Amino acid sequence: MSKKVAIIASNGGLFDAYKVYNIATAAAATDQEVAIFFTFEGLNLIHKEAHQQLPMPEGKEHFQEGFTKANVPAIPELVEMAKEMGVRFIGCQMTMDVMGLDKEAFVDGIEVGGAVTFLEFAKDADVTLTF
To answer: What integer pLDDT is reported at residue 2 of this predicted model?
Structure first.
């Protein structure tokens, strides 16, 4: 039986994206089953346009040089890596409805579901994280 990692992504900034995708891909690389529930601003991390241009937090611009020197992949690359590694992406149906967004606004391969969909996965998760 594989271990499960359940992640809630409710914030939509660049650093949030790196946290979510770093943990998700690391867990998937160690043969753990991973699901990410994207809700509220966290939907930016899978939005077709927004995830490609997440802004660097104000006053943190100096990190960009470090990301480049360390060969840290850009967020769109991490999204693709996570998908290729089998990470489940679950977009929150309620939040999508509230924001007037449909599945086509997001990267290919996401599931759309409510809290119950995520809870079904998370109920026996070994690790649960929120970003």
So the answer is: 76
